[in-house]
Amino acid sequence: MLKPQPRITEINRPFWDGCKAGRLMMQRCQNPDCRKTIFYPRVCCPQCHGAILDWVEVSGRGSIITHTTVYRPHHDGFVGDLPYVFAAIEIEGTHLYAQVLDAPTDGTSLTGRAVCVEFVGHGPDLKMPVFRLADE
User: Fold this and answer.
1) 1 domain residue, yes or no
2) Which strands sit side by side in the sheet containing 53-57, from one edge to the other?
3) By C-alpha distance, which of 111, 114, 84 is closest to 100?
4) Is 6 within the bounds of a domain?
5) pLDDT value for 43
6) Residue 128 within any structural domain of the chain
7) Tell me, what's the pLDDT at 124?
């Protein structure tokens, strides 16, 4: 079964185009007093409310803030992935939520563990960012 697909708009298209190309793209505020990295895509900076945002490629390396193990999916398209770890990832001062592939699902704490991004197919002509535990 096909997994739910994101709604691609003019605001978030650079993020999804980057994923297709294997690049993790995020917005960065161009206000010299701010310069915050921003995720999810939007039209102004949530920190300083500046309206000049550029797209930049970020490293794709981050750390797990918190996580949970999913045993009951919210959509039938994820049944084949069960169980899986879903985590809040800190990257360059902002947060992204994603699946952590091949992570232990036995209740082991992953908080603070380093992760790196990968891109996996998620339907026709779309890739999704996911993470793996990094070698420490």
Assistant:
1) no
2) 37-38, 25-29, 53-57
3) 84
4) no
5) 96
6) yes
7) 84
Q: Which of 41, 34, 130 is nearest to 89 (CA)?
A: 130
Cβ proximity of 65 and 89 under 8 Å: yes
Q: How many domains does the chain have?
A: 1
Structure tokens, 135: 């070698």
Give the three-state DSSP class for 13: helix
Give residue 86's domain range: 13-133
Report if residue 126 sits inside a domain: yes
pLDDT at 123: 83
Which two tokens mark 76?
Answer: 């039938």
Token pair recorded at residue 44: 């102004």
pLDDT of res. 136: 61
Radius of gyration from C-alpha coordinates of the chain: 16
Q: Low-confidence residues of the chain, pLDDT below 70?
A: 1, 136
Q: Count other Cβ atoms within 10 Å, centred on residue 91.
A: 21
